[in-house]
Amino acid sequence: MQQILDRTQESLAQAFASLARNARRQRQLYYATVGLLIAIVIVSAILLGGLAAAKQLDIRRSHLAQYVSAISLQLQSDASFLRRTTLTVAHYLNARSDSPTDPDLLERIRRTGIAVAPDGRYTLLVPSSTQQAWGRSLPERVWQLQQIAIAALTTRVAFELDNPAYVVDANAEYAVILTPSPMPLDVALLIAEQNDPVEVLRDKLVQALQARTGQELPRNGEQVWIGPVEDPVLHSQVMTSVVGTTAGDGHRPALIASSTPVNAFLSQLKRPSDPAMLLLLNHAEDRIDISPRGSSLEVAERILLRTRRLPP
Question: CA 197 to CA 191: how far, in whole Å?
Fold first, then answer.
């Protein structure tokens, strides 16, 4: 009887030990399963986060490509305007008048040296010293300048450029100011109050060119971007593209400049409702414009500082 009890007790002990081992194995399997599920969830979250980040980066790259395309189109329009106006200036400075000069423009030139078009979209500047030097050829020269203004203005409107442009003689003999939007009266008065507005225009362009290239004039046909600088007429910050040209005889150099307000580059872009900060810099990494408007300049400077530290 005792042997039966001992065997029963031993069997029960073995059974309980087996149950304990099975329980431990089940617990370990449970923990392993839970750990595996947690790992799967974490990896899935990382993958989803990576995919979302990659998708967001693709969206940002797509937006950036659209921004670059829009700005490039604007720059190409400026370049095309300058090329065509270069040909216009060279042609009309050697042309002869087939029709009488506008008597009102000629009278205002003789009286004040400044003649604003009736629609206010271009202004001719011919100082008294130039009028004396031109003598009897003054009417024909004024006609030439008027034709340059009309042709250049038509070109500018065709390219949908609604910002000021200038044709300035390198010797400060004359200047043509183009304003596709009619020039405000106060701006015209400001020009009239200057002692020699042509020389002021010429000097500001030359100084900006010297600071950018070290030369007073670009090579014939070369386009140079300068800025941000102060527009010589509107007195606001602009980026200005400048080319140098000469008349057909090669003895009358002129500067042709097209100004674009610094805030006109990024404001034209179609941006999402929650846009990231966008910075536009010049060749020297000076800030031209920032979008969206009102972004923190301090944050922008930190981004610029970090960017400058990146390897090329």
Answer: 6
Neighbours of 297 (CB within 10 A): 10
C-beta separation of 66 from 275 below 8 A: no
Residues 200 and 304 in one domain: no
* Least confident range of 7-16, 161-170, 184-193, 278-287: 184-193
The whole-model pTM stands at 0.78
> Percent of the chain beyond pLDDT 90?
27
- Residues 301, 248 within the same domain: no
Residue 10 structure tokens: 């031993």
Same domain, 299 and 185: no
Question: Two tokens at 189?
Answer: 């008065």
Tell me what percent of the chain is helix, strand and coil, each rounded to the nearest 5. Answer: 55, 15, 25
**Calpha distance 209→110 (Å, rounded):** 32
Quote the Cα angle for 308-272-279, to 5°.
20
Distance CA 71, CA 67 (A): 6
CA distance 89 to 166: 12
Closest CA relative to residue 176, chosen from 235, 254, 275: 254
Split into its structural domains, the chain has a count of 2
Average pLDDT over residues 195-217: 87
Span 66-85, pLDDT tens digits: 888 988 988 999 999 999 99
**Using one digit for the tens of pLDDT, what is the confidence trace for 21-52?**
787 888 888 888 888 889 898 988 888 888 88
Which residues touch 211 (CB under 8 Å, ≥6 apart)? 226
Same domain? For 131 and 211 the reply is yes
Q: Which domain holds residue 299?
A: 271-309
Neighbouring CB atoms inside 10 A of 215's CB total: 13
- Give the CA-trace dihedral at 78, 79, 83, 85, to 10 degrees: 10
Q: Quick one: 258 and 119 in the same domain?
A: yes
From the list 86, 89, 102, the residue with the least C-alpha distance to 174 is: 89
